[in-house]
Design brief:
The complex is a heterodimer of chains A (100) and B (202). With 100 residues, chain A is of the alpha+beta class. Chain A is built from three helices and six strands; from the N terminus they run βαββαβββα. Chain A has one domain: Alpha-Beta Plaits. The longest helix of chain A is centred in the first third of the chain and has 23 residues. Chain B has a single domain, classed as Metal-dependent hydrolases (TIM Barrel, Alpha-Beta Barrel). Chain B has a seven-stranded parallel β-sheet, with helices on both faces. Chain B starts with a strand and ends with a helix. Classes of the chains: A alpha+beta (100), B alpha/beta (202). At the A-B interface, α1, α2 and β6 of A face α6 and α8 of B.
Chain lengths: 100, 202
């Protein structure tokens, strides 16, 4: 069912450190390699910005898979990196409070 | 009571690693190349550190010979390179964890019959097998079989530097993703590794 008929719950995941677009691109590449284009579409993965920090949003049931993809990112924009999650939250407001 | 988190596989330990582990509220860690200086420093900050040895045997006899030479206080993990070594590692009580990796033999009913020891999933190993479809499938099969048969699964970072140390919640989500569970499997970073480290060795 579409989101308009049955609203799917979203979760927001803050990623430590960088707010670089290339970090999100690297995450999306890893996610797509693991779950394919259909997985990418169904997960609702998107980038958001919370108080200058990189955060991603996805549907609730996809949170473990997105965190797995975050853990498997080891290179972004030609630099070696390891991404860490700071918090998983149901609202952007509580994420912002956590970052204060 | 608050959970006691443990990261049971770090390849090295320095001041930055200790700060990262304490920052993520880990209370226990196992380190492969551990110096006494950093072990003391970690202890003073409330982090208990144990020495770890990772064996990569390619036969049963090689594994038994290595186990015979190992000190009892060391946490022993085995990364079996053959099915024969795997079968021995899964049932030998001197082994603390069997490490899952891309080259591990496929799980079958004979393996299930002898499987007694806990398994360990290191994120560094998972990164290596992420591009290997067969290896990834086998690792996922082991995780699911272990969960179905109530065999403890410990998730560790396998970090070589402070940068690679991951928060316990993130490690718990890794196992949740592989076993199709929605909530993070926190037992994999607390109860399971703590029980493994506290078990009596014979």
């Amino acid at each position: 069912m579409s989101e308009r008929l049955f609203r799917k719950k979203r979760r927001y995941i803050v990623i430590e450190g960088s707010r670089d677009t290339q970090v999100f691109e690297a995450l999306r590449d890893v996610f797509q390699r693991l779950y394919g284009v259909i997985g990418l579409a169904e997960s609702g993965l998107r980038k958001i910005d919370v108080k200058g920090c990189l955060a991603v949003s996805c549907y609730k049931e996809w949170v473990p898979k997105v965190v797995l993809a975050i853990s498997l990112v080891r290179e972004a924009a030609g630099h070696k990196t390891a991404l860490k999650t700071v918090k998983v939250s149901g609202t952007i407001k509580s994420l912002a409070e956590e970052l204060d | 009571m608050a959970r006691e988190y443990a990261d049971i596989y770090l390849k090295g330990l320095d001041g930055d690693c200790i700060a990262a582990l304490v920052g993520y509220s880990y209370r226990l860690a196992c380190v492969e190349n551990l110096s006494n200086e950093f072990a003391e420093k970690a202890r003073s900050l409330g982090l208990t550190v144990r020495r770890k040895q990772v064996l990569s045997p390619s036969s049963r006899s090689e594994l038994l010979r290595c186990l015979h030479e190992i000190d009892e206080e060391v946490c022993v993990s085995v990364k079996p390179l053959s099915r024969e070594a795997l079968m021995t590692a899964l049932r030998d009580r001197r082994v603390d964890t069997v490490m899952l990796h891309a080259g591990i033999a496929e799980v079958d009913r004979h393996i299930l019959q002898v499987w007694e020891n806990a398994v360990e999933l290191a994120v560094s190993e998972l990164v290596e097998c992420a591009g290997n479809v067969k290896g990834l499938r086998t690792v996922i099969a082991y995780c699911r079989k272990a969960v179905d048969n109530d065999i403890p699964v410990a998730v560790s970072s396998g970090a070589a530097s402070a940068e690679e140390i991951l928060p316990p919640q993130q490690l718990a989500y890794v196992l949740a993703a592989l076993t199709d569970v929605e909530a993070p499997v926190l037992d994999a970073v607390s109860t399971a590794p703590v029980t493994i480290l506290k078990k009596e060795r014979k």
